[in-house]
């Protein structure tokens, strides 16, 4: 790993989206207050550039790249507002508000181009409500509610359905999982994970299988499990070398999952690969900084960009690049405002 140029703002719990032009858009997060700033990383020049700020400060929001290339940002900081970023103009436009304010929810882009937003919380109220955003009309429509209220869960699209996994309902950590079928707009419970978990990661392989890693349920977890949509069953796989919560996972081109950072009492710099074909984990070179709550993006050149996070003593504005071919982390130039 090696450091890239620092972002203009230190941030944790921000969002990162890979744009259709190959750049990475970073939005919001927290650094002694909620942030509305946004910045762009250009892999071709390895330079950061400030772009227009969002209309609202946001932490715990979602960021989704639509099929038209625009980015939809929703909620966070207990907001019901949503806004669209247009990369060609580098500008933000307010779109219609969601039916419910929500933070720490999930958003999934469906094959019909709509965006499904699920769960989250407003203060101490945990939500099971879900709603659909239609980019063609710019409107939100309530759809059927999940079977369980949850925040801090994860979601992924597999075999045309949205799989929502784990989280916390305000009273207990959840091991439940459920599937949303866009064709019927209904939720169906599927089998439970072997472990309840919150602050975990989710990754989808080409064959539709889903890997869930780590998180916490009163204790930090190193366990990992695989969901097979063809059977609807979870299977424990080899545990990670390090327990970790609030980490990131990236599916790289060779069908391996790179897991980095997180927290297990200290901010972690460690990194490891999961190989689905062998069901094993391999430790690789650590990052230069321990990071809880960073974000990762797989660039079009195959490198993995990791940004920000909490070091255990301060929020970070640093970023690092991992080159899978050489198994090294490298640096880029600083942000140009």
TrEMBL record:
The keyword DNA repair does not apply. InterPro entries: Gal_Oxidase_central_sf, Kelch-typ_b-propeller, Kelch_1. SUPFAM superfamilies: Kelch motif. The keyword Nucleotide-binding does not apply. Keywords: Kelch repeat, Repeat. It holds the Pfam family Kelch_1. PANTHER family: KELCH PROTEIN (PTHR24412), KELCH-LIKE PROTEIN 28 (PTHR24412:SF441). This is Uncharacterized protein. The lineage of its organism: Eukaryota, Metazoa, Spiralia, Gnathifera, Rotifera.
């Amino acid at each position: 790993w090696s450091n890239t140029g620092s972002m203009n703002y230190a941030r944790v719990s921000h969002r990162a989206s890979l744009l259709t032009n190959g750049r990475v858009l970073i939005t919001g997060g927290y650094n002694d207050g909620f942030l509305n700033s946004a910045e762009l990383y250009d892999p071709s020049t390895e330079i950061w550039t400030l772009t227009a700020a969002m209309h609202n400060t946001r932490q715990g929001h979602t960021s989704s790249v639509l099929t038209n290339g625009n980015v939809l940002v929703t909620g966070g900081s207990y907001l019901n507002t949503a806004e669209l970023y247009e990369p060609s103009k580098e500008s933000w436009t307010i779109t219609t508000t969601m039916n419910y304010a929500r933070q720490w929810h999930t958003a999934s882009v469906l094959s019909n181009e709509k965006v499904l937003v699920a769960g989250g919380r407003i203060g101490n109220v945990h939500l099971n409500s879900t709603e659909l955003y239609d980019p063609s009309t710019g409107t939100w429509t309530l759809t059927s509610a999940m079977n369980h209220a949850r925040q801090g869960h994860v979601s992924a699209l597999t075999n045309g359905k949205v799989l929502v996994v784990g989280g916390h309902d305000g009273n207990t950590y959840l091991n439940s999982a459920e599937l949303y079928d866009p064709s019927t707009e209904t939720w169906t419970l599927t089998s439970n994970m072997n472990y309840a978990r919150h602050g975990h990661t989710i990754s989808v392989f080409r064959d539709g299988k889903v890997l869930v890693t780590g998180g916490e349920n009163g204790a930090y977890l190193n366990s990992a499990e695989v969901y097979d949509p063809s059977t609807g069953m979870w299977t424990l796989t080899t545990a990670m070398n390090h327990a970790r919560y609030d980490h990131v996972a990236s599916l790289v081109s060779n069908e391996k999952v790179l897991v980095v950072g997180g927290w297990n009492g200290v901010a972690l710099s460690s990194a490891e690969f999961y190989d689905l074909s062998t069901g094993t984990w391999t430790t690789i070179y650590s990052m230069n900084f321990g990071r809880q709550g960073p974000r990762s993006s797989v660039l079009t050149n195959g490198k993995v960009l990791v940004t920000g996070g909490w070091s255990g003593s301060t929020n970070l504005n640093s970023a690092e690049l991992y080159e899978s071919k050489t198994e090294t982390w490298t640096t880029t130039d600083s942000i140009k405002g």
